[in-house]
UniProtKB/TrEMBL annotation:
Transmembrane segments: none annotated. Keywords: Hydrolase. GO terms for molecular function: hydrolase activity. Residues 42-269 form the Metallo-beta-lactamase domain. Pfam families: B_lactamase-like_C, Lactamase_B. This is Zn-dependent hydrolase. It comes from the Bacteria. Coiled coil: none annotated.
Protein backbone atom coordinates (compact mmCIF):
# COMPACT_ATOMS: atom_id res chain seq x y z
CA UNK A 1 0.00 0.00 0.00
CA UNK A 2 1.41 3.41 -0.94
CA UNK A 3 1.36 6.30 1.59
CA UNK A 4 -1.63 7.98 -0.06
CA UNK A 5 -3.72 4.84 0.37
CA UNK A 6 -3.25 5.06 4.14
CA UNK A 7 -5.29 8.28 4.04
CA UNK A 8 -8.32 6.35 2.75
CA UNK A 9 -10.66 3.97 4.58
CA UNK A 10 -11.16 0.49 3.12
CA UNK A 11 -14.28 -0.95 4.79
CA UNK A 12 -13.62 -4.47 3.45
CA UNK A 13 -9.95 -4.48 4.42
CA UNK A 14 -7.75 -6.58 2.16
CA UNK A 15 -10.68 -8.63 0.83
CA UNK A 16 -10.54 -9.37 -2.89
CA UNK A 17 -13.39 -11.21 -4.60
CA UNK A 18 -12.44 -14.36 -6.50
CA UNK A 19 -13.52 -14.61 -10.14
CA UNK A 20 -17.00 -16.16 -10.48
CA UNK A 21 -17.79 -15.13 -6.88
CA UNK A 22 -19.70 -12.11 -5.58
CA UNK A 23 -19.57 -10.03 -2.41
CA UNK A 24 -22.42 -7.82 -1.19
CA UNK A 25 -20.90 -4.40 -0.44
CA UNK A 26 -24.22 -2.60 0.23
CA UNK A 27 -27.80 -3.89 0.26
CA UNK A 28 -28.52 -5.27 -3.21
CA UNK A 29 -25.10 -4.24 -4.60
CA UNK A 30 -22.57 -6.98 -5.33
CA UNK A 31 -18.87 -6.79 -6.20
CA UNK A 32 -17.53 -8.95 -9.06
CA UNK A 33 -13.81 -8.99 -9.86
CA UNK A 34 -12.49 -10.27 -13.20
CA UNK A 35 -8.88 -10.78 -14.37
CA UNK A 36 -7.15 -8.71 -17.05
CA UNK A 37 -4.03 -9.78 -19.04
CA UNK A 38 -2.23 -6.48 -18.42
CA UNK A 39 -0.06 -4.94 -15.71
CA UNK A 40 -3.37 -3.64 -14.35
CA UNK A 41 -4.54 -7.18 -13.74
CA UNK A 42 -8.18 -6.85 -12.72
CA UNK A 43 -11.40 -4.93 -13.17
CA UNK A 44 -14.24 -4.53 -10.71
CA UNK A 45 -17.74 -5.08 -12.08
CA UNK A 46 -21.04 -4.65 -10.26
CA UNK A 47 -24.31 -6.57 -10.00
CA UNK A 48 -27.33 -4.66 -8.68
CA UNK A 49 -30.66 -6.24 -7.77
CA UNK A 50 -33.29 -4.64 -9.95
CA UNK A 51 -36.86 -4.58 -11.17
CA UNK A 52 -37.96 -3.32 -14.59
CA UNK A 53 -41.59 -3.29 -15.76
CA UNK A 54 -42.55 -5.55 -12.89
CA UNK A 55 -39.85 -8.14 -13.61
CA UNK A 56 -37.33 -9.02 -10.92
CA UNK A 57 -33.71 -9.43 -11.95
CA UNK A 58 -30.33 -7.75 -12.15
CA UNK A 59 -28.47 -4.85 -13.70
CA UNK A 60 -24.88 -5.56 -14.74
CA UNK A 61 -22.53 -2.58 -14.57
CA UNK A 62 -19.44 -3.05 -16.78
CA UNK A 63 -18.49 -6.31 -18.42
CA UNK A 64 -14.79 -7.19 -18.74
CA UNK A 65 -12.84 -7.87 -21.95
CA UNK A 66 -13.90 -10.50 -24.45
CA UNK A 67 -12.03 -13.66 -23.49
CA UNK A 68 -13.02 -17.27 -22.96
CA UNK A 69 -11.79 -17.09 -19.37
CA UNK A 70 -14.07 -14.19 -18.49
CA UNK A 71 -16.98 -15.67 -20.42
CA UNK A 72 -16.56 -18.78 -18.29
CA UNK A 73 -16.60 -16.77 -15.06
CA UNK A 74 -19.77 -14.95 -16.17
CA UNK A 75 -21.45 -18.26 -17.09
CA UNK A 76 -20.76 -19.50 -13.57
CA UNK A 77 -22.18 -16.28 -12.10
CA UNK A 78 -25.29 -16.51 -14.28
CA UNK A 79 -25.87 -20.08 -13.10
CA UNK A 80 -25.04 -19.75 -9.41
CA UNK A 81 -25.19 -16.13 -8.25
CA UNK A 82 -28.33 -14.58 -9.72
CA UNK A 83 -30.87 -16.43 -7.54
CA UNK A 84 -32.49 -17.83 -10.64
CA UNK A 85 -33.31 -14.34 -11.97
CA UNK A 86 -32.36 -12.83 -15.34
CA UNK A 87 -30.21 -9.86 -16.22
CA UNK A 88 -32.58 -6.99 -17.11
CA UNK A 89 -30.06 -4.50 -18.53
CA UNK A 90 -26.36 -3.98 -19.09
CA UNK A 91 -24.98 -0.57 -18.15
CA UNK A 92 -21.46 0.39 -19.23
CA UNK A 93 -19.62 3.36 -17.75
CA UNK A 94 -17.46 3.94 -20.84
CA UNK A 95 -16.06 2.44 -24.02
CA UNK A 96 -12.69 1.07 -22.95
CA UNK A 97 -12.31 -2.66 -23.65
CA UNK A 98 -12.23 -3.85 -20.05
CA UNK A 99 -15.62 -2.21 -19.52
CA UNK A 100 -17.35 -2.71 -22.88
CA UNK A 101 -15.73 -5.90 -24.21
CA UNK A 102 -18.45 -8.43 -23.36
CA UNK A 103 -21.41 -6.03 -23.34
CA UNK A 104 -22.96 -7.43 -26.53
CA UNK A 105 -22.51 -11.00 -25.30
CA UNK A 106 -24.08 -10.23 -21.92
CA UNK A 107 -26.93 -8.28 -23.54
CA UNK A 108 -27.66 -11.44 -25.54
CA UNK A 109 -27.70 -13.71 -22.51
CA UNK A 110 -24.26 -15.27 -22.62
CA UNK A 111 -23.44 -18.59 -24.24
CA UNK A 112 -26.98 -19.96 -23.77
CA UNK A 113 -28.76 -16.77 -24.87
CA UNK A 114 -30.79 -16.66 -21.66
CA UNK A 115 -32.19 -13.14 -22.26
CA UNK A 116 -31.97 -10.21 -24.65
CA UNK A 117 -31.59 -6.81 -22.97
CA UNK A 118 -30.57 -3.26 -23.78
CA UNK A 119 -27.14 -1.67 -23.42
CA UNK A 120 -27.22 1.61 -21.46
CA UNK A 121 -24.29 3.92 -22.23
CA UNK A 122 -23.53 7.52 -23.21
CA UNK A 123 -23.73 8.61 -26.84
CA UNK A 124 -20.06 9.58 -26.97
CA UNK A 125 -18.81 6.25 -25.67
CA UNK A 126 -21.28 4.18 -27.68
CA UNK A 127 -20.23 5.84 -30.92
CA UNK A 128 -16.49 5.61 -30.25
CA UNK A 129 -16.94 1.97 -29.26
CA UNK A 130 -18.75 1.26 -32.54
CA UNK A 131 -16.00 2.98 -34.54
CA UNK A 132 -13.18 1.20 -32.74
CA UNK A 133 -14.82 -2.23 -32.74
CA UNK A 134 -15.29 -1.90 -36.52
CA UNK A 135 -11.55 -1.30 -36.89
CA UNK A 136 -12.01 2.29 -38.05
CA UNK A 137 -10.03 3.89 -35.22
CA UNK A 138 -6.65 3.18 -33.72
CA UNK A 139 -5.74 5.09 -30.52
CA UNK A 140 -3.70 2.34 -28.86
CA UNK A 141 -2.44 0.62 -32.00
CA UNK A 142 -2.21 0.52 -35.78
CA UNK A 143 -0.61 2.74 -38.39
CA UNK A 144 -2.36 5.88 -37.14
CA UNK A 145 -1.05 5.37 -33.61
CA UNK A 146 2.47 4.74 -34.92
CA UNK A 147 2.40 7.98 -36.95
CA UNK A 148 0.98 9.90 -33.99
CA UNK A 149 3.65 8.75 -31.56
CA UNK A 150 6.43 9.16 -34.13
CA UNK A 151 5.29 12.76 -34.55
CA UNK A 152 5.77 13.17 -30.81
CA UNK A 153 9.23 11.68 -30.58
CA UNK A 154 9.08 7.88 -30.66
CA UNK A 155 11.94 6.97 -32.98
CA UNK A 156 12.70 3.35 -32.07
CA UNK A 157 11.80 1.25 -35.16
CA UNK A 158 10.97 -1.81 -33.06
CA UNK A 159 8.54 0.14 -30.87
CA UNK A 160 6.87 1.68 -33.91
CA UNK A 161 6.51 -1.73 -35.55
CA UNK A 162 4.92 -3.12 -32.38
CA UNK A 163 2.45 -0.24 -32.47
CA UNK A 164 1.58 -0.97 -36.09
CA UNK A 165 1.00 -4.62 -35.23
CA UNK A 166 -1.54 -3.66 -32.56
CA UNK A 167 -4.06 -2.59 -35.21
CA UNK A 168 -6.59 -5.19 -33.99
CA UNK A 169 -6.00 -4.48 -30.30
CA UNK A 170 -9.43 -2.97 -29.64
CA UNK A 171 -11.52 -5.16 -31.93
CA UNK A 172 -10.01 -8.32 -30.42
CA UNK A 173 -11.12 -7.22 -26.96
CA UNK A 174 -14.47 -5.76 -28.13
CA UNK A 175 -15.43 -8.08 -31.01
CA UNK A 176 -19.03 -6.87 -31.36
CA UNK A 177 -21.31 -4.06 -30.29
CA UNK A 178 -25.09 -3.99 -29.83
CA UNK A 179 -26.79 -2.36 -32.80
CA UNK A 180 -29.10 -0.44 -30.44
CA UNK A 181 -28.57 1.26 -27.10
CA UNK A 182 -30.22 3.48 -24.51
CA UNK A 183 -28.54 6.82 -24.03
CA UNK A 184 -27.28 8.03 -20.65
CA UNK A 185 -26.73 11.76 -20.11
CA UNK A 186 -25.48 14.05 -17.35
CA UNK A 187 -28.09 14.39 -14.59
CA UNK A 188 -30.29 11.49 -15.77
CA UNK A 189 -32.01 9.63 -12.91
CA UNK A 190 -32.04 5.86 -13.24
CA UNK A 191 -33.97 3.73 -10.75
CA UNK A 192 -32.14 0.49 -10.06
CA UNK A 193 -33.78 -1.67 -7.44
CA UNK A 194 -34.57 0.29 -4.28
CA UNK A 195 -32.47 3.34 -5.17
CA UNK A 196 -32.38 6.24 -7.59
CA UNK A 197 -29.01 6.78 -9.23
CA UNK A 198 -27.85 10.04 -10.79
CA UNK A 199 -25.65 9.88 -13.86
CA UNK A 200 -22.48 11.95 -13.44
CA UNK A 201 -20.63 12.42 -16.70
CA UNK A 202 -16.90 12.94 -16.75
CA UNK A 203 -14.50 13.82 -19.51
CA UNK A 204 -10.84 13.33 -20.32
CA UNK A 205 -10.58 9.59 -19.69
CA UNK A 206 -13.16 8.73 -22.33
CA UNK A 207 -15.56 10.80 -24.47
CA UNK A 208 -18.48 10.81 -22.00
CA UNK A 209 -17.82 8.57 -19.01
CA UNK A 210 -20.87 7.82 -16.83
CA UNK A 211 -20.45 7.31 -13.09
CA UNK A 212 -23.52 6.61 -10.92
CA UNK A 213 -24.27 8.22 -7.57
CA UNK A 214 -27.09 7.23 -5.20
CA UNK A 215 -27.66 9.57 -2.31
CA UNK A 216 -30.05 7.15 -0.62
CA UNK A 217 -27.58 4.26 -0.85
CA UNK A 218 -24.59 6.48 -0.04
CA UNK A 219 -22.70 4.90 -2.94
CA UNK A 220 -20.74 6.20 -5.93
CA UNK A 221 -19.96 3.73 -8.71
CA UNK A 222 -17.03 5.76 -9.98
CA UNK A 223 -15.88 3.73 -12.97
CA UNK A 224 -12.39 4.93 -13.87
CA UNK A 225 -12.87 8.57 -12.91
CA UNK A 226 -11.83 8.18 -9.25
CA UNK A 227 -9.53 5.28 -8.41
CA UNK A 228 -7.97 4.70 -4.96
CA UNK A 229 -4.45 3.53 -5.82
CA UNK A 230 -3.55 4.75 -9.28
CA UNK A 231 -4.34 7.91 -11.19
CA UNK A 232 -6.80 7.64 -14.05
CA UNK A 233 -5.12 7.52 -17.44
CA UNK A 234 -5.75 10.72 -19.38
CA UNK A 235 -4.25 10.57 -22.86
CA UNK A 236 -4.03 12.35 -26.18
CA UNK A 237 -4.42 9.68 -28.85
CA UNK A 238 -4.32 9.92 -32.62
CA UNK A 239 -8.08 10.04 -33.09
CA UNK A 240 -8.07 13.53 -31.46
CA UNK A 241 -4.46 14.64 -31.87
CA UNK A 242 -4.88 18.23 -30.61
CA UNK A 243 -7.12 17.29 -27.66
CA UNK A 244 -6.89 18.76 -24.15
CA UNK A 245 -8.20 15.85 -22.06
CA UNK A 246 -6.39 16.67 -18.83
CA UNK A 247 -8.15 20.03 -18.53
CA UNK A 248 -11.46 18.22 -19.07
CA UNK A 249 -10.60 15.57 -16.48
CA UNK A 250 -9.59 18.05 -13.79
CA UNK A 251 -12.77 20.04 -14.40
CA UNK A 252 -14.82 16.83 -14.18
CA UNK A 253 -13.43 16.02 -10.72
CA UNK A 254 -15.41 19.00 -9.42
CA UNK A 255 -18.64 17.08 -10.02
CA UNK A 256 -17.77 14.66 -7.21
CA UNK A 257 -16.69 17.21 -4.61
CA UNK A 258 -20.22 18.00 -3.42
CA UNK A 259 -20.95 14.35 -2.59
CA UNK A 260 -20.95 13.42 1.12
CA UNK A 261 -17.56 12.73 2.63
CA UNK A 262 -18.64 9.26 3.82
CA UNK A 263 -19.74 8.10 0.36
CA UNK A 264 -18.75 4.51 -0.35
CA UNK A 265 -16.79 4.63 -3.62
CA UNK A 266 -16.92 1.55 -5.83
CA UNK A 267 -14.04 1.98 -8.31
CA UNK A 268 -13.28 -0.08 -11.41
CA UNK A 269 -9.76 -0.88 -10.16
CA UNK A 270 -8.57 -1.26 -6.59
CA UNK A 271 -10.73 -1.82 -3.51
CA UNK A 272 -13.94 -0.06 -2.43
CA UNK A 273 -13.10 2.87 -0.20
CA UNK A 274 -14.31 5.90 1.73
CA UNK A 275 -12.45 9.20 1.57
CA UNK A 276 -13.71 10.64 -1.72
CA UNK A 277 -12.75 14.24 -0.96
CA UNK A 278 -9.28 13.19 0.17
CA UNK A 279 -8.76 11.16 -2.98
CA UNK A 280 -9.86 14.02 -5.25
CA UNK A 281 -7.36 16.31 -3.54
CA UNK A 282 -4.65 13.67 -3.96
CA UNK A 283 -5.41 13.44 -7.68
CA UNK A 284 -5.29 17.21 -8.12
CA UNK A 285 -1.98 17.35 -6.23
CA UNK A 286 -0.58 14.53 -8.38
CA UNK A 287 -1.34 16.34 -11.63
CA UNK A 288 -0.07 19.67 -10.26
CA UNK A 289 3.25 17.97 -9.51
CA UNK A 290 3.45 16.40 -12.98
CA UNK A 291 2.65 19.74 -14.61
CA UNK A 292 5.40 21.38 -12.58
CA UNK A 293 7.87 18.75 -13.84
CA UNK A 294 6.77 19.41 -17.43
CA UNK A 295 7.16 23.20 -17.03
CA UNK A 296 10.63 22.77 -15.57
CA UNK A 297 11.74 20.46 -18.39
CA UNK A 298 10.36 22.77 -21.09
CA UNK A 299 12.12 25.72 -19.48
CA UNK A 300 15.46 23.94 -19.94
CA UNK A 301 14.95 22.98 -23.59
CA UNK A 302 12.18 22.09 -26.05
CA UNK A 303 10.63 18.75 -25.11
CA UNK A 304 8.70 16.14 -27.07
CA UNK A 305 6.23 13.83 -25.38
CA UNK A 306 8.83 11.05 -25.68
CA UNK A 307 11.27 13.28 -23.76
CA UNK A 308 8.69 13.77 -21.01
CA UNK A 309 7.84 10.07 -20.55
CA UNK A 310 10.95 9.15 -18.49
CA UNK A 311 10.42 12.24 -16.34
CA UNK A 312 6.85 11.22 -15.48
CA UNK A 313 7.30 7.42 -15.52
CA UNK A 314 10.51 6.29 -13.85
CA UNK A 315 10.23 2.59 -14.63
CA UNK A 316 10.57 0.18 -17.53
CA UNK A 317 7.45 0.19 -19.74
CA UNK A 318 6.19 -2.49 -22.09
CA UNK A 319 4.53 -1.46 -25.37
CA UNK A 320 1.05 -1.46 -23.81
CA UNK A 321 2.16 0.77 -20.95
CA UNK A 322 4.20 2.95 -23.30
CA UNK A 323 1.17 3.91 -25.38
CA UNK A 324 -0.62 5.20 -22.28
CA UNK A 325 2.53 6.87 -20.93
CA UNK A 326 3.02 8.71 -24.23
CA UNK A 327 -0.63 9.72 -24.29
CA UNK A 328 -0.48 11.00 -20.73
CA UNK A 329 2.78 12.91 -21.25
CA UNK A 330 1.19 14.59 -24.25
CA UNK A 331 -1.95 15.39 -22.21
CA UNK A 332 0.15 17.34 -19.71
CA UNK A 333 2.00 19.15 -22.48
CA UNK A 334 -1.28 19.99 -24.21
CA UNK A 335 -2.87 21.43 -21.08
CA UNK A 336 -0.02 23.92 -20.81
CA UNK A 337 0.01 24.52 -24.57
CA UNK A 338 -3.72 25.20 -24.78
CA UNK A 339 -3.43 27.47 -21.72
CA UNK A 340 -0.78 29.54 -23.53
CA UNK A 341 2.06 28.59 -21.18
CA UNK A 342 3.96 26.58 -23.79
CA UNK A 343 4.70 27.10 -27.47
CA UNK A 344 4.59 24.12 -29.83
CA UNK A 345 7.22 23.91 -32.58
CA UNK A 346 7.83 21.31 -35.28
CA UNK A 347 11.47 20.44 -35.85
CA UNK A 348 13.18 19.64 -39.11
CA UNK A 349 12.85 15.98 -38.11
CA UNK A 350 9.06 16.36 -38.06
CA UNK A 351 8.83 15.94 -34.27
CA UNK A 352 6.62 18.25 -32.22
CA UNK A 353 8.34 19.83 -29.23
CA UNK A 354 7.12 22.27 -26.61
CA UNK A 355 8.98 25.13 -24.92
CA UNK A 356 8.25 28.04 -22.63
Amino acid sequence: MNPLEHQLDYPFGDTLVEPAATLEVAPGIYWVRMPLPFALDHINLWLLRDEIDGRQGWTVIDCGIASDVIRGHWESIFDTRLQGLPVLRTLVTHCHPDHLGLADWICNGGARERWKVRLWISLGDYMLGRVMAAGDGSNAGGEGAARHFARHGVTDPEALEKLRNRKDYYSNLVPSMPSQYRRLREGDKVTIGAHEWRIVTGYGHSPEHCALFSESAGVLISGDMVLPRISTNVSVFDIEPEGDPLALYLESLGRYESMPADTLVLPSHGRPFRGLHTRIEQLRTHHDARLAEVREACARSPQSAADIVPIMFRRQLDIHQMTFAMGEALAHLHLLWHAGELVRIQGADGVMRFRL
